[in-house]
Amino acid sequence: MSERDAFERVVASLYDAMLDDTLWPATSALIDESCGLTGNTLLICEGPQDDFRAHFVGLCHRGHRRPDLEREYLQVYFPIDESIPRFRRLPDSSLVLVKSLYTARELKTSRTFNEIFSRGKYRNGLNVRLNEPDGSHLSLGFGDPVASSGWGSSQVNMVTRLVPHIRQFVRVRQTLVRAEGRATTVTALLDNSRIGILHLDKRGRILAVNDRARSILRRGDGLSDRDGLLRAAGGRDHLRLERLLAAALPDSGGTAVSGSMQLSTRELKY
What we know:
Layout: H1 3-19, H2 24-35, E1 40-46, E2 53-61, E3 64-65, H3 67-77, H4 84-88, E4 95-97, H5 104-109, H6 111-120, E5 126-131, E6 137-142, H7 153-178, H8 186-190, E7 196-200, E8 206-209, H9 211-219, E9 223-226, E10 229-232, H10 235-248, E11 259-263
Antiparallel strand pairs: 1-2, 1-6, 2-3, 4-5, 5-6, 7-8, 7-11, 9-10
Helix pairs in contact: 1-2, 1-7, 3-6
C-alpha cells in the first residue's frame, strides 16, 4: 500500500470515529500500522498552568486499549513527570522526541521515563502539544517506532500530516459529548436540537442541515447559504471561514470523506 493510500485510510477512519468513539481502537491501530508505531496516546490537560488536570482519551497498543497503563500514569507518574513543565511551554503543533524533554541526568534517573515509558514503549516516541480554544491543550503521543533503525523521514512526514486530523477528531468528540451525542450517526446528529449542524461533503458543499442551523442561515446575520456553499458576510470573515473549511475538509484525494460542522455565528468548530 502506498503512503497516500495509507494516509487516506487513516483519515477516512478518523472521520467515521468522530461520530462513534467505539471505532477509535480500530482507527488507532491504523495509525500505528501506517506510521510504523508500537502505540499511540491522546491526553487532554485542562486548567491553569500551575494546577491543571489530565485525563486520557485513549492509550492504545496496536488498537488495544490499555486502561491499566492510563491509570498508572495518571495516578503514579504524572505528578512526578519531569517533562511536563517543558512540554507545557512547547509551541503549538511542535513535534519533539520524548527523550528531548528530559535532561541527560533525568534520562538516567527519571522513574517516568525509565519505568512506565519503558513498559509502554514510549522512550523513543514523539510528542506534540496542541492548544485548544477553551484554554485546554491536547497531547498526542506516538510510541516507539517498530523499525530498529528508528524514525525515518517518511514516518515523521506521515505523523505530521495526521496531527491536524487527530486534533479535529478530538474537537468533534468533545463537542458531541457536550451536546449529549456521544455515539451517533449523521442522521441522529442532525436531529440534535442543542447545536446547529451542517453536513458537508469533501468539497465543502452543504448536504444537509438541522433546524437550528437552518434558522441561523435564514437570518443571514453573519453566515448564509449561497448556491449550496457557506458564505460569511464580511470579506475578512469569509477568508477566515474558507481557512476553517480548508482545515476541516482537506482534499482526501478521491476518498469519500465528509463531515459534520457545529454552526454558530460567533464561532465555527468542525
